[in-house]
């Protein structure tokens, strides 16, 4: 019965995974950037988005490539300087739309646009980054860029991890991260999309929040409560930001409605050097907020989460582990997909039991 699905989730590496439960076909579609696990031409030499399918979340197919950055059209804005990042697929008006982060080499490196003086002086940025929207008629692809000549996010912005968020009036928006490497204090931003073509932006970017606004920073002692808001030169900032220290990361937004109609956005950052799964809430239910930061959901070096509803009705949260962990010999641990039951409440998302029966991880505190 399961000859076409010989794998379990723990058999393969996952990084920024995304699960689509497609009731039309009765299958789960698990999308992932190919981080060189499969080096054959069939899998794009590690420069592709791959798809695993499953009838039951326990048995998965071998991966197939559904978008390859090496085989790109003439005049494409992006190139093959890095693997695609953070693919996610949404059904919208009868078609399947992939949001994916692509990259391009710069002819000449540029300086960051914001941050402490030493950061702007000493760091250069050698790549461009943007969120592209691809489309297919089925969740199995192949996915084709609608406008390969330009990302949907602003071309001058180091943008990544775009996600679809539907506003309280039903209009589609993209929430995305404005990369910390350009700003030092990364931000979350949003643009309204064309309802008939999700690859087209219909508004200027709107600022939602900054990474340093995460509520855990006060206890960690690495940012003031409420964020820097561009003030990197005050006496307090100079005391807290040591020259050469890292910036503040925004990563992996994903928006979910609560029973009352509020909008919760999962997002990921760092706390004391490890990945942290955070959340924010727009009690108005609008993408533009105002947004309030909530207590983090998980501190165990796991993040870039999304939520899907299984065919039995259970809401599940999927993210990846081992962003920074190493083994006893100092080798990086493989990133795996990890799944929890989850509930959307009017106070935010609440993690339920860990689903070892699906992800095969014995101990989330020490995944190997």
Automatic annotation (TrEMBL):
Q: Which UniProt keywords apply?
A: Glycosidase, Hydrolase
- The domain of life for this entry's organism is Bacteria
Q: Which InterPro entries match?
A: GH43_arabinanases (IPR050727), Glyco_hydro_43 (IPR006710), Glyco_hydro_beta-prop_sf (IPR023296)
**What Gene3D superfamilies does the database record attribute to this sequence?**
Glycosyl hydrolase domain, family 43 (2.115.10.20)
Q: Pathway of this protein?
A: Glycan metabolism; L-arabinan degradation
Whether Hydrolase counts among this entry's keywords is yes
> A single GO BP annotation from the record?
carbohydrate metabolic process
Which molecular function GO terms apply here? hydrolase activity, hydrolyzing O-glycosyl compounds
Family of the protein in this entry: Belongs to the glycosyl hydrolase 43 family.
UniProt source species: Bifidobacterium dentium (strain ATCC 27534 / DSM 20436 / JCM 1195 / Bd1)
In Swiss-Prot or TrEMBL terms, this protein is called Glycoside hydrolase family 43
